[in-house]
């Protein structure tokens, strides 16, 4: 049997009251791993889905952090905001290490599907394990799948020759988030280091028409 909702559901006037950690009853119900029907009862009582605690976490971010796929789906069903000024501040970006949850948030502007089909997986493996650099680069430059390009960037061995990375950046199907991941993986987010590591990649990134990246790469 589920939990006794009557004993857990807050009074309507206290539905968004925060505790010492800045957590609302909704956020607490997620942190305390309450049953989904309990969480939905709080939402149905009028809980604000967008309030943040002292860590800056919303109910959605807490659901992602605690890997509550059911709660993520529930929050989306009830209209939680999944958009952000830029992809790096979005719930999708926070969830991207968990493919299942990230793909639930695909409606986020700038997001990319992370779970590949079997055919896409086969193509990715061919690119990752082929030792012919010229073949790999040629294949990448003509690839019409943003998803495979992105997956390649995530699984590429950065101790190897970097020419395939240049090929990814030259491909018109390379998305903003893929370029951002390249920056993160090569420099831990420190753009100044990228010019020292590989000026060709730096210049390719800087010459893109991606507004967010131009702002980040300005000297």
Automatic annotation (TrEMBL):
Transcription regulation among keywords: no
Keyword entries, A-Z: ANK repeat, Repeat
Keyword Iron appears in the UniProt entry: no
InterPro entries: Ankyrin_rpt, Ankyrin_rpt-contain_sf
Positions of ANK repeats: 55-87
Name the UniProt record assigns to this protein: Uncharacterized protein
Originating organism: Clostridium botulinum
């Amino acid at each position: 049997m589920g939990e006794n909702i009557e004993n857990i559901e807050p009074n309507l006037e206290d539905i968004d009251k925060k505790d010492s950690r800045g957590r609302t009853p909704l956020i607490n119900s997620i942190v305390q791993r309450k049953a989904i029907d309990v969480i939905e009862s709080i939402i149905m009582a009028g809980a604000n889905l967008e309030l943040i605690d002292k860590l800056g976490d919303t109910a959605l971010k807490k659901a992602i952090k605690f890997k509550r796929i059911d709660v993520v789906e529930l929050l989306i069903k009830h209209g939680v905001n999944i958009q952000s000024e830029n992809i790096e501040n979005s719930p999708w970006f926070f969830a991207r290490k968990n493919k299942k949850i990230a793909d639930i948030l695909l409606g986020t502007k700038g997001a990319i599907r992370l779970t590949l089909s079997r055919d896409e997986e086969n193509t990715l493996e061919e690119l990752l394990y082929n030792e012919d650099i010229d073949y790999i680069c040629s294949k990448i430059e003509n690839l019409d799948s943003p998803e495979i390009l992105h997956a390649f960037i995530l699984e590429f061995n950065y101790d190897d020759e970097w020419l395939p990375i240049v090929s990814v950046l030259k491909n018109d199907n390379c998305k903003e988030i893929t370029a951002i991941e390249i920056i993160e993986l090569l420099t831990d987010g420190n753009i100044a280091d990228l010019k020292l590591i590989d000026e060709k990649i730096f210049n390719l990134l800087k010459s893109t028409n991606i507004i967010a990246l131009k702002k980040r790469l300005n000297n």
